[in-house]
Amino acid sequence: MNMQLAINWEDNDKVINHIAQHLKRSRITLVVGAGISKDFKLPDWGALLDALWSGDTPPEGYDTLPAKKQATILFSKKFNSSQENLKKAVKHALYKNAKTNFIELHENLLLSSIASLVMSSSRGSASNVINFNYDNLLEIYLSYFGFTCDSVSNPVTWESNKDVKIYHPHGFLPFNDKNDSSEIVLDTSSFNEVANSNWESKLFTLMSSTFSVFIGVSGDDDHLEQYLERCKKEHIAIKENLPYWGVWFTTKKLDNAVSMLWKEQKILPFKLDSYDDLPDTLFKICQQAAQISK
After folding, report:
1. Which residue, among 219, 213, 211, has the nearest Cα to 245 in the 3D structure?
2. C-alpha triplet 101, 106, 21: angle, nearest 5°
3. CA atoms of 106 and 20, how far apart (whole Å)
4. What's the rounded Cα separation, in Å, for the pair 262 and 246?
5. Which residues are bridge partners to 213 per DSSP?
6. Dihedrals φ, ψ of 202, to 5°?
7. What average pLDDT does this structure show over 181-194?
8. Paired residues of 8 in beta bridges
9. Phi, psi angle pair for 267, to nearest 5°
10. Which of 2, 29, 252, 256 is the most exposed, fewest CB within 10 Å of its CB?
11. pLDDT at residue 293 in the model
């Protein structure tokens, strides 16, 4: 019998050991979203759109629209569909109140624990990160420790020998840096474009051959959804008759509707009593992988 099939998936310690086994083999992909940036005063989606209106009034009926439709109206009415104007405004709103100095970054346990997974080690590392945020806080943090990062905002690019590769499929607007991506994904049209671009093959190839760990991700992103749908059928773990190909950290109850949807995608919801418990869980994964390596 495949021992992985015999795992008690309701036992968090057993799940931590399973993830550590993948980390030991350096076959983990981190998938991160807005949840990892909130402690640094970066705006969430709603606050970002509000900031981008900046004194102008949205048209009647705007509040009834889904988020991406709101962004479509914003992009057209406020920025005349100009990516350059949009990027400039988004970057200003993004970092206006952001905490980006080393002390504040270093004191954040979640960022530290994510970095511990990413940093090179004989116990393995998660050297590929898919970041659906525009910011480069993780890159800034890693650079303080002398790690080199390849921030990828174009799916067609040269390979590099840097320590960590961080993919930014929705665009990249780094703090205190002029290396912005040519476009960012915000409205309906840009979401559709990126979903049907070279990102599709790039990210699917990565996710379908590694164990994915989802942190700070809600799961309501249409772009991410297409990978979840495809991986639940074509991931190597599924082909080997394993029940899950990834784990999603959450504070929601396991019988919550959102948790059930993640489970339908063959991704295990890992229940935390509090999101404050997540750093300790990630550190345990690293420590367990180190024990396996002895």
Report:
1. 211
2. 140
3. 24
4. 10
5. 30, 247
6. -60, -50
7. 89
8. none
9. -120, 130
10. 2
11. 67
Distance CA 104, CA 39 (A): 10
Contact (Cβ atoms closer than 8 angstroms) between residue 48 and residue 93: yes
- Locate 49 and state its tokens: 């759109």
Instruction: Give strand pairing partners of 164.
Output: 149
CA 70 from centre of chain: 23
DSSP secondary structure string, the chain?
--GGGG--TT-HHHHHHHHHHHHHTT-EEEEE-GGGTGGGT---HHHHHHHHHTT--PPTTGGGS-HHHHHHHHHHHTTTT-HHHHHHHHHHHHHTT---SHHHHHT-HHHHHHHHHHS--TT----EEEE-SS--HHHHHHHHTT--EEEE-SSS------SEEEE-TT----TT-----S----SHHHHHHHHTSTHHHHHHHHHHTSEEEEES--S--HHHHHHHHHHHHH-HHHHTT-S-SEEEEESS-TTSHHHHHHHHTTEEEEE-S-GGGHHHHHHHHHHHHHHHH-
Dist CA 49 CA 74 (whole Å): 8
- Taking phi over 0 as left and psi of -120 to 50 as alpha, with beta for the rest, 218 belongs to alpha
What is Dmax (Cα atoms) for the chain?
A: 64
CA distance 135 to 42: 9
Residue from 257, 251, 259 nearest 277 by CA: 251
pTM: 0.94
Which domains are present in the chain? 3-40+101-293 (3.40.50.1220), 45-95 (no CATH)
Say if residues 198 and 155 touch (Cβ distance below 8 Å): yes
Sheet holding 164-167, edge to edge: 149-152, 164-167, 128-131, 28-32, 211-215, 246-250, 267-271
